[in-house]
Amino acid sequence: MVPEYQGEPEEISKEKAKLAAQRINGPILIEDTSLCFNALHGLPGPYIKWFLDKLGYDGLNKLLIGYDDKTAYAQCVFAFCAGPTSEPIIFDGRCSGRIVQARGPNKFGWDPVFQPDNEQGQQGHQTFAEMDKTEKNRISHRSRSLQLVKNYFV
After folding, report:
1. How far is residue 128 from each of residues 65, 147, 154, measured CA to CA in Å?
2. What 8-state DSSP symbol labels residue 122?
3. Low-confidence residues of the chain, pLDDT below 70?
4. Beta bridge partners of 33
5. Which reaction does it catalyse (predicted)?
6. What pTM does this model have?
């Protein structure tokens, strides 16, 4: 286990990858996920887990109550570090959408309050929680980041 670093998602991922590569004395691939509200300039970002734990779904919505802009993006950053002395390579995948009232099953983190845009970039109609797993995995921030990882190694 590595410590929870603070900072921007890319910085956090780089530090986690460096430390993990040093600990295992070899190559490592780490992942960090964020939910970023555009009206709040990217917050809660990598701290979404803590915000959700303390505020719940209603509290996340209340953070945006004074803003017209409810847009957000889900971000997944993978960092690959080839070894303990290597500089990590960042793979940043994002999925645009908006923050909505919680809908759908509460199976995974903030999925009920994030409604991703469709593949044409237009406002979607379902939250991640309401989507079939296959569809979610096809359009998600994580799948986009993993595609960048695959492209790097091919």
Report:
1. 21, 19, 29
2. S
3. 1-4
4. 76
5. dITP + H2O = dIMP + diphosphate + H(+); N(6)-hydroxy-dATP + H2O = N(6)-hydroxy-dAMP + diphosphate + H(+); ITP + H2O = IMP + diphosphate + H(+)
6. 0.91
